[in-house]
TrEMBL record:
Residues 52-294 form the AB hydrolase-1 domain. It comes from Ancylobacter novellus. Keywords: Hydrolase, Signal. This is Alpha/beta hydrolase. The lineage of its organism: Bacteria, Pseudomonadati, Pseudomonadota, Alphaproteobacteria, Hyphomicrobiales. One of its GO terms (cellular component) is membrane. Residues 1-21 form the signal peptide.
Length: 310
């Protein structure tokens, strides 16, 4: 199912506080030094807000702005919000080679950044691909995780593999040539249609691509990193999914009955059965982008987990 996400937005489409302007970075963000390079982090909201901070993790084929402009600024009215460009995306370095396609390795980097920033415990919110990353943080870094929310999250093994162009882009040498020559012109021409398919059955905001700088995906290095993330996810989940029952923090699993990218039957319902005491929310008539289309409900569910986690 996650291959569809790549299809929609693929071809269709130690210096904490450093002021280095990385490509894709925000002027109000920070580049946090971690092992292998830097992660681009944006913080919103009051530093002294009660309760844990809320960590928002974007899905495949995107960057932190997708979470910021959907729910991040809303949540920041009452909470400290941390947004991270995952390794190789937006303004963040890849931090290594192919091993960085692993949600566990990305989780290690995010945990290191949180430690350097002295954030304390967080409620982790992961959309789509980052459902696996959010679960990995809860499993491997429990001292940092006060609560967990997945939004159309990929958390379980699935059968269909990555799209052909992601397999090519993830291939050594050939992938570099492919990403540098084919992806840009084809992707730019088809990008709006790809975004529309990701939002179905709804329509995306008219300014979504410009607002979120979604076309950063078409940069060769980022496209290759995204392809590796998607190609390797299925194998990673075969290993991680049997551990999901060890998650012991307040957990809410938000899914949608018309999500044809990350199937609720394959991912969210089995995850709910594994995580003791978790809450399952199935949004009727919604698709893969509930943080954009069902914003009020999603914000309310995140805030409810944050309240339980104080």
């Amino acid at each position: 199912m996650l291959a569809a996400a790549g299809l929609a937005l693929g071809l269709a489409a130690l210096g904490f506080g450093s002021t280095r302007a990385a490509p894709g970075a925000d002027p109000d963000g920070l580049d946090v030094a971690v092992r292998g390079g830097r992660l681009h982090v944006v913080t919103l909201g009051p530093r002294n807000a009660p309760g844990p901070a809320i960590l928002l993790l974007h899905g495949a084929s995107g960057n932190h702005r997708d979470m910021r402009f959907s729910i991040g600024e809303r949540l920041a009215r009452r909470h400290r919000v941390i947004l991270v460009d995952r390794p190789g995306h937006g303004g963040s370095d890849r931090l290594g080679g192919r091993e960085m396609a692993s949600p566990a390795r990305q989780g290690d980097a995010v945990a290191e950044a949180l430690d350097r920033m002295r954030v304390g415990r967080v409620v982790v919110v992961g959309h789509s691909w980052s459902g696996a990353l959010a679960a990995s943080l809860a499993l491997d870094h429990p001292r940092l995780v006060a609560g967990l929310v997945t939004l159309s999250g990929a958390t379980e093994p699935y059968e269909d593999g990555a799209a052909w162009y992601n397999r090519i882009a993830a291939t050594p040498l050939l992938g570099d040539v492919f990403a540098a020559t084919i992806v840009g012109p084809v992707g730019r021409a088809q990008f709006p249609r790809g975004v529309q398919s990701t939002f179905r059955p709804h329509r995306p905001p008219a300014d979504y691509i410009a607002m979120t700088r979604a076309e950063l995906l078409l940069r060769p290095a980022e496209f290759k990193a995204n392809a590796q993330d998607l190609v390797d996810l299925r194998g990673f989940l075969r290993t991680q999914a049997p551990r999901n029952g060890a998650i012991r923090v307040p957990t809410t699993i938000v899914t949608a009955d018309r999500d044809d990218i990350v199937s609720p039957e394959i991912h969210s319902r089995p995850f709910h059965a594994q995580v003791r005491g978790s809450k399952l929310v199935v949004l009727a008539g919604a698709g893969h982008m509930p943080h954009w289309t069902e914003t009020d409900r999603v914000v309310a569910e995140i805030e409810a987990v944050a309240a339980k986690s104080r």
